[in-house]
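Action item from last week, closing it out:
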Amino acid sequence: MTTDTGEPTLTVDELAARAGVTVRTVRFYSARGLLPPPVIGPRRVGRYSQEHLARLALIEELQHRGMTLAAIERHLTQLPPDLSAHDLAIHRAVVASWAPEATQEVTRAELERRAGRPLDDEDLERLAAMGVVERAGDSVRLDPGLLRLGVELLDVPLAHETILAARTVLLEHSRAAAHELSALLREAVGDSEPVAAVKSLSAHMQPLVVQALLTTFQRSLNEELREWLKES
């Protein structure tokens, strides 16, 4: 089980099931220091939190992007130590956005299993508005990289129109930033560089760009919120 407070209530079996990995994988990542140790509860049973789940999902996403465990370890050590499950979910969503667009067709039951909660029709409509799912008859097309963040946003009291407007703003500014960064990379490598060299540079740059985007966005948003609170 788990709670909305983020308290460590997941057993290692529950954590592995929610993340879609084996218990052996969880223990392996823990031994490598990629996951923080669990909280030891009664009967010396380790309990894991939403932060563990989000960090595990990020590790799997980075590995899916082709990063070695050593590179993932270096990447994780560069992240702020106090990132919440929500922060990690945002980071994972940004990482996933570098991958080619790929959706998975899953059943309603499988979607709920991955989400870790029941989903009614209104929840599906909100997830569809955020671009997380698309209905396809009795099944749904799912963007796995956005699921965890989308599920967390279900509990935020925002109207569909606001979600769509926010998504449009983020997409427009993200594409503008990607266009400018792509132009910088093209200028840096030149037209004569082989394709392999360009791909290698891109692979090395991606984690750095993801970290920069996450950090600068969070700082800018915090500054905007502080100004907003001053005016109110």
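Closing note: Residues 51 and 84 are 6 Å apart (CA to CA).
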